Amino acid sequence: MSGRTHTRACPERTCVGCRKRAAKNDLLRIVMIEDACVPDPRGTLPGRGAYVHPAPVCLDQAVRRRAFTRALRAPRALDTNALRRYVEQTTVAEQATP
Fold first, then answer.
1. Is-contact 84 59, C-beta < 8 A?
2. What pTM does this model have?
């Protein structure tokens, strides 16, 4: 052995809101179920996924740009209410944790 340690590459994805690359673990996967964007925090739901930072700013940018419709290849605009509630709840929970 040469004494070198090999670190595994961390998969990266691009946030559809801010368009910045980040580790897959730092982003929230979004999938389309019927006509709605649904959060997939475990990353196990079937279907095409899009990634976004779990922050209201990135979510607002993605909605304004219609990025979810494009990334998920939806025929029409998607409902993001459930997604917005999830992001707001996780943001509040993170701020409450010291």
1. yes
2. 0.86
